[in-house]
Design goal:
The protein is α+β, with helices and mostly antiparallel strands. The protein contains 13 helices and ten strands. 50% of the residues lie in helices and 12% in strands. The strands form three sheets. Strands 1-2-4-3 form a four-stranded mixed beta sheet, with helices on one face. Helix 1 packs antiparallel against helix 2 and helix 4 runs parallel beside helix 5. Bound molecules: zinc ion. Zinc ion (ZN) binds next to strand 8.
């Protein structure tokens, strides 16, 4: 009769128990275990195909999901094996927990500190890098950020500090601020009868030339106006409204939003210019969409000009959107206004 390995073991143990009564309890405990092993063995030998398939499925399963089963699942943390220094740094930045079993442990530890992680050494001498709720160097990070902000603020302030409300280029002229009595300046000629403050002609010419190089046409249509010209323009506008049947007061109010009240026009101090192009000569909002209008909006600051009555600032300037009216303020002020989206009234307020 054939006995299996386990059956022979059971028989031997039984004999042993019979000869040495002291070992009987051991035999009683071990025998059922051996019987169970023998039972498994029988199953295995009778169902090899099934078992093989099961084993194969198990291996595939472990291969696919082993990472989840055997990785340390610590809530809120991910564990990755970082095999090289660069990889580890990236993990820290991404907020991962990293374990580095290799020689650059010290580097990881060092980097961990830098990124606000805590490095713990466990029995296997691996470092668990754990992101702390409050990074060790949070205060330092905060201080660095504050420093950066301060530096930016100082820079901004210094840009402002370079500007002065007393600068001739920043003279504020509007309905509330008429041209100061006795205001004097030298007139220069742009071309033909066109004049403006002599001090701005160089920048103006450079702007027109540079634009021309880019294929953008800029034509000065209305530069300096003397008092009588401004008066005439204003009176004409009032007449237009009067003819439409409005009262003088109504006409005056409307005219003052379209044509600057005499004595408060920047055209009268030679620092403002109405600009058009060779294929768009109307002074209306449509100019903003033309090639020239777009170029001026983008680049005029580089030559010290600012779009004086921008869209959205009507409540401050008291003048409707005039994409053609440019005012010379100097490059520093024009740059600051452009960057901060403010108009001249707002800039003067800050000085
Ligand atoms: Zn104008």
């Amino acid at each position: 009769m054939y006995f299996s390995f386990f059956e022979r073991l059971i028989i031997s143990l039984r004999n042993l128990g019979n000869h040495r009564p002291l070992l009987k309890p051991f035999v009683i405990i071990v025998t059922p275990l051996l019987r169970f092993c023998d039972y498994i063995r029988k199953k295995l030998t009778h169902n090899t195909k099934k078992i093989g398939l099961l084993l194969a499925a198990g291996i595939v399963f472990l291969f696919l999901f082993g990472q989840f089963l055997f990785g340390e699942n610590i809530e809120g943390l991910e564990k990755v094996n970082a095999y090289d220094y660069g990889r580890g740094v990236k993990d820290f930045e991404a907020g991962f927990l990293s374990v580095s079993p290799y020689e650059s442990d010290e580097n990881y530890k060092f980097k961990a500190d830098e990124f606000g992680f805590r490095a713990d050494s466990d029995q296997d001498n691996q470092y668990s890098i754990i992101k702390e709720d409050t990074p060790k160097d949070a205060e330092e990070v905060l201080a660095a950020n504050t420093k950066k902000q301060l530096a930016e603020q100082v820079k901004e302030e210094s840009e402002l500090a370079n500007l002065s409300a007393d600068d001739w280029r920043l003279i504020l002229v509007n309905k509330q601020h008429p041209i100061p009595e006795g205001y004097e300046f030298e007139l220069g000629t742009i071309y033909k009868g066109m004049k403006c403050d002599a001090r701005i002609i160089d920048d103006l010419s450079r702007m027109i030339d540079d634009a021309a190089d880019k294929g953008v046409s800029i034509i000065v249509c209305s530069p300096y106006r003397n008092d009588s010209r401004q008066n005439a323009l204003f009176d004409n506008k009032i007449m237009d409204y009067r003819e439409e049947g409005l009262t003088y007061m109504e006409s005056y109010a409307l005219a003052s939003t379209a044509v600057t009240v005499p004595g408060s026009s920047e055209h009268q101090i030679g620092l403002a210019l109405d600009l058009i192009s060779n294929n768009y000569s109307s002074l209306n909002a449509g100019f903003a969409q033309t090639q020239t209008g777009i170029w001026l909006e983008e680049h005029s600051w580089e030559y010290g000009f600012t779009l004086r009555y921008p869209k959205g600032k009507e409540y401050i300037t008291g003048i409707e959107f005039e994409p053609w009216h440019f005012r010379y303020v100097g490059v520093a002020a024009a740059k600051y206004m452009k960057e901060n989206g403010i108009c001249l009234e707002e800039l003067i307020d800050q000085l």
